[in-house]
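ugh ok so i messed up the first submission bc i forgot one of the chains. this is the corrected input, ALL of the components this time, i swear. 841 residues overall. if the numbers dont match what u have on ur side tell me asap before i send this to the collaborators (the ones from the other lab, u know who)
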Amino acid sequence: MLFYFIRRLGLSVIVVVLAVTILNVMLHLVPGDPAVMILGPRATPELIAKTREAMGLDRSFPMQMAIFFGNVLRGDLGRDVFTDRSVTTIVMEQLPYTLMLITASIAWAAALGIPLGCYSALHRNTWLDKITGVLSVSTISIPSFVMALYALLAFAVGLKWFPAVGAGEGFADSFHHLVLPAFAVGISWVGYLARIVRASMLEVLGETHVRMARAFGLRERKIVVAYALRIAVLPAVTLIGAGVAYLLSAAVFAEVIFARPGIGALIVKAVDSRNYPIVLGCVLVTTGIIVVATLISDLVNAWLDPRVRENL
Amino acid sequence: MSANPFPKSKGIDRRGFLKGSAVAGLAAASMPISTAVWAQSGKVLHISSYADIDELDPGFYQNGYNVDVMNCIYSKLVHYVPGREWDTSLQAAEEVKQVDPTHITFRLKKGIMFTGGHGEMTAEDVKFSFERVIKHDSPVKGDWGPLDHVEVTGKYEGTIVLKEPFEPLWTITLPYGTGCIVSKKAVMEATKDGGDFGMKPPAFSGPYILDTWKPGQYVKLTRNPEWKGTKPGYDEIRILPMDDEKTMEIAYESGDLDFTAVSLSSLSKYKESPPAKTTIQEYPSLYYVWVGMNMENPALTDINLRKAIQYAINVPQIMQAAYFNQAKPATGLIAPGLTGHRESEIVPPEGDLEKAKAFLEKAGGPPIEPLTIDTLNATTWTAIAQVIQAQLAQIGIQLKVNVQDSGSFWTIGMESEGDRWKKMQLIVNRFSMLPDPYYATQWFTTDQVGIWNWERFSNKEFDKLNQEALQETDHDKRAAMYHKMQDLMEQSGAYRFLTHEASPVMFRDSVKPALRPDARPLFRFFKPA
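and heres the new structure output, hopefully the right one now
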């Protein structure tokens, strides 16, 4: 297990370095000059050249990347070209909002989707199973940004139950501000998880160990929760781990539509203004999150399923 | 107060206005700054801004959204007067007087304090604030043009000395960003060399202070406890950054905002059915939108082809398709209400297809290869490009629309960014503007070719007029110079002026907003109704 963990960690570092480098290459390939964006239209060409030099943009691309990763090892992600604030500070200010959003989204989706899938499997072909099936497919097919817009119009503008913009302050206010974005990002996951858990549960319920448990006369509740669901939930755990990237991209839309702070909104603005240090910092952090989430889902899988554990 | 160079002062001669404004100055001076009455207490104003702040040093400011906040936390000698017509009024100064074309004397009001124990505002602070813009090679040092130095003649008195006359001093420099006065003592303590203090103002001198800045979330301004002037209308102002006008509108409708800009696409809807307890007001805008043509691109070197394109573009059709008929065609770069605004253009707004065809024939017919038009990836801009594409097709010119993101778009014509400028042909462009004509024309001089002059328009007469107009103090003569400059631009065939757009706003009936004539909010003067 320890060897597996170390090996995965090593691979994760390579993935992060590759992802950041490739994205930075892409960013440099598109036209645009951060020095021009910072200084505005009235800067002289001399001042623009001076700023480019101060930002290290006059150096070769490999040199820029080497300096960036060298600084990362020292815990320094650079300085924001507009406000001259530390990129680490800026990213860490925004990161909790995004983490909060994706955690809340997936939490409510799992809390509803997994029991729904389980119930559907246990009551296969009943009218409730069919309704759940139709609703699941419907929610999967609605993009999160469409759901965000309609949720905003219905619950913030129409009914005025929730605020339309911002992230709020303090626990209650923040929670109030989080409801609509989390609803919009999480809704399609309810469908995904319900369908996956249903299919997996049906398969597990037919397996030998479950039939054996029934033969031993164990209570149905115990069989479902302790023996069947424990295994049936594994594909859902894998899906959530791999789906963090999707959740992050859905969060971008939610953050823009709800004018919420967060990594997504930060990246969009930074790419637009060619704010390279912020883009690199954000990409590094988001890639790190995705890699860690995948690692965690693999470890949870191993913890839940002894067969997986043995193969590590 | 000195001569008001805005067009409304037309008819008042400079000396006459000086006399009148001296009286106004005396009246203002005689008002003790502590007699103001507090407005309604406990009020919070929620407003939006199209971007989050990123620079609070007035000597190095960029962009209007930073100046909106600076207006609240610093004081200036003079400020823009809220209203429908451009005008300025005394703020930190008891008197400002232009004694000759290159000397402007000022006398500060007594008792304006900097926060944090940094003492009273003096002429030394004024000198420091203005001279540091030049000394530290600020990107906006152009605002101070030919400033030579500021001479301190007393604790509260001084003289601004220019190397040569500079008319925009009255319309931009003093009442806008670089006119803000900072504390010499505080800035020197914070920066050692008096340079850019960025996002950490070391002291405030306005009616509000920066209480909290939560990046991407809000800017919170609260009353300045040390402020002794007219008390501001609100206990707190919260500015929420939102890039999208539609988001602002939704936020307003849901009750999260008290005041917001309205997009032109939503204006008719709101006029027909405004949100409850809401007032909608329409203001003109200073932005100028035009179609430019790269005169050095091989496909566009023939003036007849450029003129054919000018005449084929029907501006009212564009207003209908891209601006929902809520904006008016422009006659040039300079918006109505400003010195130099032209009453009419050379090419009529509707264009003239027959003339277009005639010019095209002189040019030897449409280009064999399709031309390209670059545009920003914003709905209005792409709509403009698509309408022009259809209009040029009427005379047989094929046009390909290139949509670009802002990072790519805003460097397209810059020589420092490689060879892209050579390939650029037509472009839909839009520049922001401040209330002086020089701010518009300065980008189209020969020395701006390959920097911001992407049409590569180069005309000696234009360059000469642009320089002379900066120093011309006679309003009518100055206006005539700018008329001529716009004529020259249009005659080159490289420009088709489209519109100045419009700036509608909506606000709760409980708010009494204070706006510049272009609807730019002056939050400092907002009050509860």
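quick check: Chain A has a mean pLDDT of 87. that seems consistent at least. Chain A has two domains: 2-73, 94-310.
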